[in-house]
Amino acid sequence: MKYLLCLILLGLSISCKVQRVPAKSSDSSKEISTDVTQQASVKELARMASAKEAARKASVEEAARKASAKEAARKASAEEAARKASIEEAAQKAAKREEQKAAIEDVVYMIVEDQPLFPGGEAAMMDYIYDNLQYPTEAKAQKIEGVVVISFVVEKDGTLTHIKTARDIGGGCGEEGLRLVKSMPNWTPGLQRGKPVRVSFNLPVRFELEK
For the whole prediction, is pTM greater than 0.70? Predict the structure, then answer.
């Protein structure tokens, strides 16, 4: 009996041991599954972190690229503005030089090294005046005599411009003096340092009745 009882107890013990083995296997599977899930989660987190870092780097690079492009555009704009300012300054200087040149050329001299001359000289001019002067009827009637002064400019080409009466004695004598000068041929221009220049000239025209 004791022997039989021992065998029964031994069988029960083995049976319990056999039944516990599956339980251990199930717990191990759960642990393995949990470990795999954790590893997958860690990998996903690492992947997301890597993607986030890549996006951050790309954003930084894009910002740097935009900043570089903006700086390049600013420099190009500054260079263009400087170029335009330089061109404008050069144009202003050129215009100023032209104005100065024109002003110099436009100067009317009072005294020059070589005075302008009527063709043939002063004697020829006096003959011209004597031959062409027409005594105004009004001046004759009023017995007006005296000297009319006609001012004008002898240009570089010898033409006479800005003809006007500087002194008049009335009776139509001033108008006759103007007519006389306007009908004159071109003069020989005055010279300054060997170059033709504009010269102001005052011409006295005497009106005298015959006695």
Answer: no
